[in-house]
Amino acid sequence: METVTVNTSTPYVVHIGPNLLSQTGRLAAEATPSRTCAVITDTTVEPLYAAPVCRSLQEAGFKVCLHAFPAGEQNKNINTYGGMLEFLAENKLTRSDFVVALGGGVVGDMAGFAAATYQRGIDYIQIPTTFLAASDSSVGGKTAIDLRAGKNLAGAFHQPKMVICDTDTFRSLPEDAFADGVAETVKHGFIADRDFYNFLMTEDLHARIDAVVRRNVEIKAAVVGEDERERGKRKLLNFGHTLGHAIEKCSGYTVTHGHAVAIGMVLASRAAERLGYSPAGTLEAVEAACRRFHLPTECPYTAGELYAAATGDKKRDGGSIDVVVLEEIGRAGTVRLNMEELRTFAEAALSDKENIYADRI
């Protein structure tokens, strides 16, 4: 087992390794004095991992209640969230008790938000069961639900007490679901670590999965430790996300997050090259990574459709939005665009003409 410490306002440890679900109770007992918890999961994860987690907690002396909600991004909404709060209240959890978020990114976001708001905030532990959640969303304290107007528009920053990442759980993932995590993984290489990007382009990720997750967590922990509430450097973690979230919304969330981010990174890189924000060769490197890991590179929507969806992004600040661009492979920056410039950015990302944007820089 490896550990990474996340130095936020309330520091916590991320445990990474195989066969950790069976150690949940022992690890939780080290992180909290409470002896009552609610395990929140979804209907996909429940039959796979709820029993060993609950058993480990009970064997360690915890009183445990279990709540499973229907799986899928389409259920990441206010009704499902309200059901979680009602469940916590019905089971009489108090401020000294805690929530266990067992599952992928949707579970972690929603259970974390329920913990952040139930009785004005109780503790929670993240147990990610997808490569995507382990490598990205379980670390950093972002919790949220979707609204009809857009993704993650209601939420809170609420850091977990601990993260337990059992890499054995990735074996149950379909390849498409594993690839969602790969998209966020190569993103970390693009924005922060060229050597990591080179490693990913040559190594077998499945064979080196503990090391890959650890490096993902180290990169994200360093950024979050410096900018916990996304006022500066943490925005760099959104590379590919502005247009990626727009793709998710346009698809009715049938395009998964990682696949949408992969397309978003390609689009952002094409636009940034054409508009002079990124050097030549950036797009080629991003497309090469997507091809290596069988991630999509083509967008099925028009620039107008993406622009309309992106104007509701939570990252918008008044009449402008910060878009992440690569200054080189391994280093990123942000460009502040007004809404008309964002439209131009989307058009540059999708046009088949390469030179018509030079006069718009």
Number of E-state strands: 12
Number of helices: 13
Structural class: alpha/beta
Helical residues, percent: 40-55%
Large-scale geometry: globular
Distance from first to last alpha carbon: 49 Å
- Round the mean pLDDT to the nearest integer and report it: 95
Strand order of the largest sheet: 1-2-9-6-5-3-4
Radius of gyration over C-alpha positions, nearest whole angstrom: 20 Å
What does this structure look like?
- The protein is α/β, with parallel strands linked by helices.
- The chain has 13 helices and twelve strands.
- Strands 1-2-9-6-5-3-4 form a seven-stranded mixed sheet, with helices on both faces.
- β11 (320-328) and β12 (331-338) form a beta hairpin.
- α1 crosses α2 (46-59), α5 runs parallel beside α8 (209-226) and α10 packs antiparallel against α11 (282-292).
- The longest helix has 19 residues, at 257-275.
- The mean pLDDT is 95.
Topology:
Blueprint: E1 2-6, E2 12-17, H1 24-31, E3 36-42, H2 46-59, E4 63-69, H3 78-90, E5 98-103, H4 105-117, E6 123-128, H5 131-137, E7 142-147, E8 150-157, E9 162-166, H6 175-192, H7 194-200, H8 209-226, H9 241-250, H10 257-275, H11 282-292, H12 303-310, E10 316-317, E11 320-328, E12 331-338, H13 339-350
Parallel strand pairs: 2-9, 3-4, 3-5, 5-6, 6-9
Antiparallel strand pairs: 1-2, 7-8, 10-11, 11-12
Question: Which descriptors would you attach to this protein?
Answer:
361 residues, alpha/beta, seven-stranded mixed beta sheet, 13 helices
